[in-house]
UniProtKB/TrEMBL annotation:
The keyword Signal applies. The keyword Signal applies. Keywords: Copper, Metal-binding, Signal. GO terms for biological process: carbohydrate metabolic process. SUPFAM superfamilies: Cupredoxins (SSF49503), E set domains (SSF81296). It comes from Amycolatopsis balhimycina DSM 5908. GO terms for molecular function: metal ion binding. InterPro entries: BlueCu_1_BS, Cupredoxin, Ig-like_fold, Ig-like_OmpL47-like, Ig_E-set. Residues 1-25 form the signal peptide. Transmembrane segments: none annotated. This is Copper-binding protein.
């Protein structure tokens, strides 16, 4: 019997006898989000939770770092595929609202993944996700395996293409996602067998994550694709876009892309397309694009011999048959006196929504000035009466009527400007020049209304809001200017700091007799990776040191993996180049067969 049913039965029994009903059980957990002056990220957010009734706390206040009166929302995504959509939450918080920016809501979470974001225009980079585990105490990651199939030649290479199939199981909370990474590229969600037709050696890494958030160790499949003999000509591929168009050539509501490929040699093996920079997808039927906005379609084809066509491209725009203008509104926030005037400063937040084609832009103007794109709440600190007008346009070109808010700002009594100081730090040489870089730290103080913000500019650059120490690494003489503004609107005099950055002396050559071959070659196997200097006078061939003594081939391969991993961490090698070098080491046979290896392994190492 569930705890809720037991509680309900107990309440009924107590009511019969005239006794007090026990209190309802509190939610199982509390999850807290906070926001500050940033429009790109939340100040804090949870990454995991348990299923069940949960108290959501969203605080956007001066206590959490919001010193500008900026509004934010905490909104749960209810439409993007791959996430739970069973919680509808949209909380708007402002430091000056009736609850001083702190809001609570009770929701019920279920196992899976939730996505959240800020719905204020210009704040869309404030986004994140958290995982609700199955609640069963699952700490064991999934098991994931890979199988490679395709037609092989006598040496074991795949003719034309190889197909990699991944499978994952999890006996606890269940598999949530499977991902793969081909030749050091980006991690991609696995949705079906991966066809690799590019000629050459390949590495496909794979991993899986369960609902409880446990991620498996990375696995790897290693294989080589070679061209089929005879056909060396890639397919011809074209695309056409069709649909109803408006006078500007935009497609109304939907554009349909049709891709056609031909190959007179071995025949077409596959056709793929990529929409708006997404993942390459197998083309099996015309592609209908309904999302409003500009789109870019790339496409390519591969024949049975493994030849890949050059990428084609089609560019088009979809608009909605929308005749309804957006809905736009504004709210004024700030500290008010007894007459309703705003003391020192008022902050205007504009919000817009459009159920048709979607909001394209929001604009505002202050006291009849120029219309300006709205990206963040607008502070108004000039003493006097003000009118802020606003409007919005949607993707279909409909523009709302002009709305307005009127208010008055009065002086807060503070007429004294803040003080600001500049500190430059870093390693210096004998001439007091900064070696490699200099760090500029700004501080300001105001004994009355308090510091609102600090600004700086380096040399002839534009004034920029200061949020953290500024690192200057460009060589030469520099001047940093700074100024501060308090809450009452007083601006300090500019304070300047001058300094010079010089280059650091080059390190000594650690390998005076370097292996200077053009590419990294291991035991006669050419990896095709450039044999560059790693920064201390040594080349990649030097640190691989193929001529040293190794007790086994396994020991040599482990050595190569270790040194190349360090080069990747130091930014010398890409992951793809590292994989090619490791592949060459595996195929080289240096160090002999691993201890206890059978005849098949030794035969493979000799190839």
């Amino acid at each position: 019997m569930s705890p809720r049913l037991i509680a309900a039965l107990l309440a009924a029994v107590l009511a019969v006898f005239g006794l007090a009903t026990p209190a309802v059980a509190a939610p199982v957990q509390t999850l807290t989000w906070t926001a500050n002056n940033s429009t790109t990220e939340y100040a804090s957010a949870p990454t995991g939770a348990l299923p069940g009734e949960t108290t959501i706390v969203f605080e956007n206040s001066e206590a959490t770092g919001n010193t500008t009166g900026m509004s934010h929302t905490l909104t749960f995504d209810t439409s993007t595929p791959g996430y739970n959509h069973d919680v509808s939450l949209n909380v708007l918080a402002n430091p000056f609202d009736p609850t001083n920016g702190r809001h609570e809501a009770v929701v019920t979470l279920t196992p899976g993944k939730y996505r959240y974001f800020c719905a204020i225009p210009g704040h869309t980079a404030m986004v994140g996700e958290f995982v609700v585990s199955g609640g069963g105490g699952d700490t064991t990651p999934p098991t994931v395996t890979a199988s490679v199939t395709g037609e092989k030649d006598p040496s074991g290479s795949y003719l034309g293409s190889a197909t990699v199939t991944l499978s994952a199981t999890d006996a606890g909370s269940g598999v949530a996602s499977v991902e793969y990474q081909l030749d050091g590229g980006t991690w991609t969600t696995y949705a079906g067998p991966v066809v690799v037709s590019t000629v050459g050696a390949h590495m496909l890494h794979h991993r899986a994550t369960d609902v409880a958030g446990n991620t498996s160790a990375e696995g790897m499949a290693h294989f080589t694709v070679v061209a089929r003999p005879g056909d060396t000509t890639p397919p011809a591929v074209t695309a056409s876009i069709t649909g109803s168009q408006d006078p500007s050539g935009n497609y109304v509501d939907v554009a349909t892309a049709r891709i056609t490929a031909t190959d007179a040699g071995s025949g077409v093996a596959s056709v793929e397309y990529q929409l708006d920079g997404g993942a390459w997808t197998a083309y099996t039927a015309p592609v209908a694009v309904t999302a409003a906005g500009m789109h870019m379609l790339h496409y390519r084809a591969t024949d049975v011999a493994g030849n890949v066509s050059p990428e084609g491209m089609a560019h088009f725009t979809v608009v909605k048959s929308d005749t309804t203008a957006p809905v736009v509104s504004a709210a004024v926030a700030g500290n008010q006196d007894g007459s309703g005037n705003y003391v020192g400063k008022a902050v205007v937040t504009v919000t817009a929504s459009d159920a048709g084609s979607g909001v394209a832009s929001v604009e505002y103007r202050v006291d009849g000035g120029a219309w300006t794109a709205y990206t963040a709440p607008v502070p108004v600190a000039v003493v006097g009466a003000h009118t802020v007008e606003f409007r919005a346009s949607d993707v279909a070109g409909n523009t709302s009527g002009v709305g307005s808010v009127a208010f008055t700002v009065v002086a807060g009594g503070d007429t004294t400007a803040p003080t600001v100081s500049v500190q430059v730090t870093g390693r210096q040489d004998g001439g007091w020049n900064y070696v490699g870089q200099a760090t500029v730290t700004l501080t300001a103080a105001d004994a009355e209304s308090g510091v609102d913000f600090i600004e700086y500019k380096v040399d002839s650059a534009v004034w920029t809001r200061y949020s953290a120490p500024v690192v200057v690494s460009a060589l030469g003489a520099h001047t940093v200017r700074s100024r501060a503004t308090d809450v009452a609107g007083n601006v300090s005099a500019e304070v300047a700091g001058a300094f010079t950055v010089v280059a650091a002396a080059p390190p000594p050559d650690a390998c005076p007799s370097s292996d200077t071959r053009e590419t990294v070659v291991i035991g006669g196997i050419d990896s095709q990776v450039e044999n560059i200097d790693i920064g201390n006078g040594c080349t990649i061939n030097d640190v691989i040191d193929e001529n040293a003594e190794y007790v086994s081939h396994d020991r040599f391969v482990k050595h190569v993996k270790a040194v190349t991993q360090e080069l990747v961490a130091n930014g010398v090698l890409s992951t793809g180049d590292r994989n090619r070098i490791v592949t060459a080491a595996i195929e080289s046979g240096i160090g002999g067969a691993p201890a206890g290896a059978g005849p098949d392994v030794k035969k493979r190492l000799k190839r």
